[in-house]
Specification:
Two copies of one chain form a homodimer. Chain A is an alpha/beta fold. Chain A folds into two domains: 132 residues, ATPase, nucleotide binding domain (Nucleotidyltransferase, domain 5, 2-Layer Sandwich); 176 residues, Nucleotidyltransferase, domain 5 (2-Layer Sandwich), CATH 3.30.420.40. Chain A is 35% helix and 21% strand. Chain A has nine helices and 13 strands. Chain A has a five-stranded mixed β-sheet. Chain A has a five-stranded mixed β-sheet with strand order 11-10-9-12-13, sandwiched between helices. Chain A is globular and about 60 Å long. Chain A starts with a strand and ends in a 7-residue tail after the last helix. Chains A and B meet through strand 10 and helix 7 of A and strand 10 and helix 7 of B.
Chain lengths: 327, 327
């Protein structure tokens, strides 16, 4: 049923990924562009979004999609229309929905990318049937989403789920947000790479395998490279991932103290490390959970939809906001 | 209308306080007993609750209250019937509702005491009209409650709102919960007293006023004594409260990152210090809030219902669970 297709757009720091998403969460067609540099005006990003949407509409014909959902890495206001702040783009209180709605016929909804991913994992992925879900996306930073009984919790101003900016180490590493000791400085892909590079700086012999893989260039160290080394059995890479996992488990215990969900879903690029990361996260969580031994404990599971979660979620969340579906 | 009265029972570490609460949140009659020591069996505490309820029913006649609400300092399961764990009592997976329902005719609901206080402040106190509320109760520890659109958020297992057990200092002070560095070790009445006593231990001259007030006995130092000294202008007492306020503001910034409420209500015994505590909390919050300057900010306000919040909230929350009110 083409009239139940929705378009999802995932705006990341490097690419704008779009897709047609059917009611079962399958992506039937894709389109993508590079994300315009943040020095460009908001209109340039809007042009890019309109291009991606137009390309997808050519596949099925204009007027045949139920809705367009935009998932953006940034603070999105609770009205699902305005991007309050996006670190990787030039948006500041940008009325994105209004601007796009002039150029796109289908109803448009804007959401935080991790909220969209949470929705996708709840509807089609690792957390189906869960009443109380916390989604944690591990990329360069940490994103988050909260779902209660299938409703995205956006908070009073739309900015709920910024888990990465809990301070967990007073006076700790400086964060892009301006604070020190934010969780995402300890449990993200960036943290992993920083720690590996610091081994290079220290000329530590335990980093020789990583050093060779990176061709001796610290700038070549990336999360995927370190993850691959760990999967190949490199003990240092495994240790690095395990340390990140410990910090992850600690923050998860904090989130459980606040909100007591039934399931934590761990997504984002770094989650590709699987149990190399999650085993130590689970262990630390069990050791740090307040009241452990006297209470039920949340499960910690890997996301199932990979990098597509944001796109699928944005599309389906937008479709769910349209009653009835527009043909 | 006596048939719309409800009974609220607040079970604390030292006393069981009960009251008849009308639909406007007024307490029309009170009764109280000492809390049985935690070495006593659960049945002894139940006897005490039944006694308090019976005393209150004598005032208005049996069969005339809509419901009985029990607020307990502990983990209460999401079924509002079972106390999973209560640190100050002997309850472990105690089916409190079932046990009491055999002896009390009116419908009984059990809630965490801070959840009850949150409800009371939302319905009758400092947070009326707020859609997204986080309540923080500062006593010997830190309790918490979350309300979204007038619904208490209990989490998947009923244990949401244990804000005091977020770890905010790795390797920090040991907490009763078994962990280290829990927020309540830094921003509670116990933390205040511990810091003041450590000044005594260090024989610091800046504590001479506090020393005199306590008659030279560290064990005489209490939160109310320190608060009174601060209100009288003692600079050391003011500094101690201000430091506690800083830790309070830091934790509030963390909670805002997770949940983005519109209002934080600060209650519990320590909140009697008012702006001596809250001024520094607000200042630190504004300095620690992620995305500050680009987003709306929650307000931080003092609770209005004082020590009665738990009792009033337990009664009214129980009444709200009965449809229609039972005559």
């Amino acid at each position: 049923m083409s009239d139940q297709l929705a378009i999802g757009i995932d705006i990341g720091g490097t690419k704008v990924a779009g897709g047609l998403v059917d009611v079962d969460g399958n992506i039937t067609h894709r389109a993508r562009r590079d994300t315009p540099h943040r020095s460009k005006s908001p209109a340039v990003v809007e042009d890019t979004i309109v291009e991606v949407v137009a390309e997808l509409l050519q596949v099925v014909g204009s007027g045949t999609v139920a809705a367009v959902g935009i998932g953006a890495a940034g603070f999105v206001a609770a009205d699902r229309a305005t991007v309050v702040f996006a670190p990787h783009l030039s948006w500041r209180h940008e009325p994105l929905q209004e601007a796009l709605q002039k150029r796109i016929a289908a109803p448009i909804f804007v959401d935080n990318d991790a909220n969209a991913a949470a929705w996708a994992e709840w509807k089609f992925g690792a957390a189906q049937g869960e009443t109380h879900l916390m989604m944690i996306t591990l990329g360069t930073g940490i994103g988050g989403g909260i779902l209660i009984n299938g409703e995205v919790q956006r908070g009073r101003f739309g900015i709920a789920g910024e888990f990465g900016h809990m301070q967990i180490v007073p006076g700790g590493h400086r964060c892009e947000c301006g604070n020190r000791g934010c969780w995402e400085q300890y449990a993200s892909g960036n943290a992993l790479v920083r720690e590996a590079r610091s081994l290079f700086s220290a000329s530590s012999p335990i980093a020789s395998d990583l050093f060779d893989r990176a061709g001796g260039v610290p700038g070549n160290l990336t999360g995927p490279l370190i993850t691959q080394a760990a999967q190949d059995g490199d003990p240092t890479a495994r240790e690095l991932l395990s340390e990140i996992g410990n910090w992850l488990g600690l923050g998860i215990a904090n989130l459980a103290a606040v909100f007591d969900p039934g399931t934590f879903v761990i997504g984002g690029g770094l989650s590709a490390a699987g149990d190399l990361l999650l085993a130590s996260a689970r262990e630390t969580f069990k050791r740090q959970l307040t009241g452990r031994g006297y209470r039920p404990e949340a499960r910690i599971v890997a996301a199932e939809l990979g990098n597509d979660a944001g796109l699928i979620g944005a599309a389906d969340l937008a479709r769910s906001g349209v009653q009835p579906a527009i043909g």
